[in-house]
Design goal:
5-stranded antiparallel β-sheet
Amino acid sequence: AKAESRQKQRKQQQQIPHHYLSNNLQTMSYDRAITVFSPDGHLFQVEYAMEAVRRGSTAVGVRGKDCVVLAVERRALAKLQDPRTIRKIVSVDERSVLAFAGLTADARVLINKTRTEAQSYRLTCEDAPSVEYLARYIARTQQRYTQRGGVRPFGIATLLAGFSDEGKPVLYQTDPAGTHSEWKSQVIGGRNAKTLREFLEKNWEEGLEEEKAVRIGVQALLEVVDSGAKNMEICVVRLGGAKSIMEEKDVDAIVKEIEAEAEEGKTKTSSADE
């Protein structure tokens, strides 16, 4: 009986394809090594870092005619927690403001590195670094953490807003892979990023006034935020990099206006159907 059971086990092992076992082992090894490409050209740890961004709260950037609006989703806080300690929008330098999605602890480290670089640039060049320079620095730092062992990628994506030397508003995005690009309007983080990007593509237009840019940012966030203005943080970056965080009551007024218009549209549609 024992001999028969051994023969059965051998037959079962022979039936499992060898390539399946080897592929499974290979996937596990590529999964763990940050510096090794998989056969189909993937760096799995970088992709996992991007997944960490998708699991983070949503951040939206909208470039206007003379401003950049950053709108972020603020997750529900514990009852006894001080909301001032949870910030998703921070100043990097006098001329640039950053919003992020992903791991807050990773963001803190990267933001401090960027602030140090901005101060070093001022000391060396006796001038403020441009927004593009800071975006390149953030992307370079993120990329460096994907190419050597003993480290892991930063689990955050950033939106960097400010003004160019010519006085034009600019908006840059960086991601965990270490790429940076300029955008007219962009969304990072959250599971509905693709849907929100489609919304921005339909509604963004050249030369947006500040009021319209803020409205688009709020409208995009309403797709993912349940409790309205309470869970939103809206920042307007004006010429010179001046950062202005909107009061909750002002955001709430815009939210109510958008909801009233949506309700009115539904009423008209239902009356037309009748």
